[in-house]
Amino acid sequence: MNHTKGGLVIFTANSHPSSRELGKRIAERLGVELGKVQVYQEANRETRVQIQESVRGKDVFIIQTVSKDVNTTIMEMLIMVYACRTSCARSITGVLPYFPYSKQCKMRKRGSIVSKLIASMVCKAGLTHLITMDLHQKEIQGFFNIPVDNLRASPFLLQYIQEEIPDYRNAVIVAKSPASAKRAQSFAERLRLGIAVIHGEAQDAESDQVDGRHSPPTVKTTGAIHPSMEIPLLIPKEKPPITVVGDVGGRIAIIVDDIIDDVDSFVAAAETLKERGAYKIFVMATHGLLSSDAPRFIEESAIDEVVVTNTIPHELQKLQCPKIKTVDISMILSEAIRRIHNGESMSYLFRNIGVDD
């Protein structure tokens, strides 16, 4: 049954077959068929897009999930958006459940804010609206000059905890670093559970040591500074021993985060929790990139289960590691598309969503 008004076209912009699965689920929920489009790579690796039906005066929604070749994924999206723009589509909404390069949203030493560049590119190509989910930093919405709906996957993950973990009342929500504490607190308050924070683990690429506040280098250059204006040096950080703030002994530990890619920090956190007496360890994340040998590391680790959503296709990783489970979020994406197309309010999808969620 068609749940939308006329004039709606849904395309999947990805040339990889497994990445089109989410688009099929969304179209099925909306009672429409996917638009006819051909996306492929030329012999010289150039991306070619051929739209095979009229989009003139229609609301176009382009669903793009990130494959292993993220740069090809971006080019497919850009070319399809521009093709719809030059074909006189009334509006073009991008549905990117995982926004690529979102982890590169802070200035590094002599680097750049790449997510700002990607935002400028999709806007310049002709995108008029963006639907995404659990941006790595909510401030990324400010990089766009178009409306952005940053949906949340937490209701689906919370539902999984309540329905699939029988003894979840004996669980504790764990932040694997102080940076994840707000997300862990949000989960804990909704489930009426306790919280624990792991502090003192090795710093990763998101730490303050590599952001723009340490550029230029912290060395004394008294030759160019007046003696009476010598700038004091910042005392270097010293990581404390690994400690767990909170009681996890005899409890189920549920580690929550937004992205699970390089799993080393999750594996180390699981080992620490096991040493502190946790008898079962779950990892919950919205985006399961699971790059490189992540499935093998998970299989060999103390982690009992990794639960991620299908914002990114990971069927191959699930075959390599049976501990990986998937939660379907096509329902909220299809409802967002329906409401935008019909001109309805989006506030229903953000009920009880706080600033820190």
TrEMBL record:
NCBIfam families: ribP_PPkin (TIGR01251). Seems to play a negative regulatory role in 5-phosphoribose 1-diphosphate synthesis. Keywords: Acetylation, Nucleotide biosynthesis, Phosphoprotein. This is Phosphoribosyl pyrophosphate synthase-associated protein 2. The keyword Phosphoprotein applies. Belongs to the ribose-phosphate pyrophosphokinase family. One of its GO terms (biological process) is purine nucleotide biosynthetic process. Binds to PRPS1 and PRPS2. Residues 9-126 form the Ribose-phosphate pyrophosphokinase N-terminal domain. One of its GO terms (molecular function) is ATP binding. PANTHER family: PHOSPHORIBOSYL PYROPHOSPHATE SYNTHASE-ASSOCIATED PROTEIN 2, RIBOSE-PHOSPHATE DIPHOSPHOKINASE FAMILY MEMBER. It comes from the Eukaryota. It holds the Pfam family Pribosyl_synth. GO terms for cellular component: cytoplasm; ribose phosphate diphosphokinase complex.
